[in-house]
């Protein structure tokens, strides 16, 4: 169950994407995935036991710009150099994925700030900060007057297995 938490009780880490000031044109049919390429992929993400976490097979391809920190570092590293039609299965340790579980990412919030239906260990909430940015958080522990929230990414501490197929690459050529 996901519940929207409308109070700013959560500090959210925001990753800023680099901004480029150069003008660019796209070049269809790039040979290989490289920095600046717009890459379209089909993927299935599983845990180490083979349980599918998410997949876009039969759906809209995932598109991202390679080298712009839009994807986790291990994913980009594994796709570098791949060509259209290329397929790959790879395993990412937590440090190459969403990182290890950070013990500093647990926060106590007053119980009164949560809706009563959220007061169950394991409940997933969507927290929104003052700027309107959202993050998924999980109820970790319920105490007498507070609730301990786990602010780690849901995939932190997990080994991830990706099955990826590169569908398209569009190179960006600078002027």
Description:
This protein is 4% helix and 41% strand. The protein is mainly beta and 175 residues long. It folds into two domains: 2-11 and 105-150, Thrombin, subunit H; 28-98 and 159-174, Chitinase A, domain 3, CATH 3.10.50. Strands 2, 3, 4, 5, 6 and 11 form a six-stranded antiparallel β-sheet that branches. The chain has a five-stranded mixed β-sheet with strand order 1-8-9-10-7, with no helix packed on it. A hairpin with a 3-residue loop joins β9 (134-142) and β10. The longest helix has 7 residues, at 73-79. Residues 1-28 have low confidence and may be disordered.
Query: What is the correct CATH architecture of the largest domain?
Result: Roll
> What fraction of residues sit in β-strands?
35-45%
Tally of distinct domains: 2
General form: elongated
How many individual helices?
A: 1
Keywords for this structure?
mainly beta; 41% strand; Thrombin, subunit H; 4% helix; 1 helix; 175 residues; five-stranded mixed sheet; 2 domains; six-stranded antiparallel sheet; disordered N terminus; Chitinase A, domain 3
Q: Strands, helices and their partners?
A:
Elements: E1 2-5, E2 24-28, E3 38-47, E4 52-55, E5 62-65, H1 73-79, E6 87-92, E7 106-110, E8 124-128, E9 134-142, E10 146-150, E11 160-174
Parallel strand pairs: 1-8
Antiparallel strand pairs: 2-11, 3-4, 3-5, 3-11, 6-11, 7-10, 8-9, 9-10
């Amino acid at each position: 169950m996901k519940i929207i938490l409308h109070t700013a009780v959560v500090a959210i880490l925001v990753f800023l994407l680099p901004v480029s000031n150069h003008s660019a044109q796209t070049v269809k049919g790039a040979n290989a995935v490289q920095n600046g390429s717009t890459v379209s992929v089909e993927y299935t993400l599983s845990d180490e036991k083979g349980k599918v976490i998410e997949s876009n097979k039969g759906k809209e391809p995932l598109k991202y710009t390679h080298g712009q920190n839009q994807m986790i570092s291990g994913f980009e590293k594994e796709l570098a150099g791949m060509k259209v039609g290329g397929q790959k299965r790879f395993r990412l340790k937590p440090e190459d994925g969403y990182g290890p579980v950070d013990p500093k990412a647990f926060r106590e919030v007053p119980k009164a700030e949560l809706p009563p239906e959220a007061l169950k260990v394991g409940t997933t909430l969507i927290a929104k900060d003052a700027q309107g940015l959202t993050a998924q958080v999980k109820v970790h522990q319920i105490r007498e007057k507070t609730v301990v929230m786990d602010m780690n990414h849901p995939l932190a501490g997990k080994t991830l297995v990706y099955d990826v197929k590169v569908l398209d690459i569009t190179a960006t050529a600078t002027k």
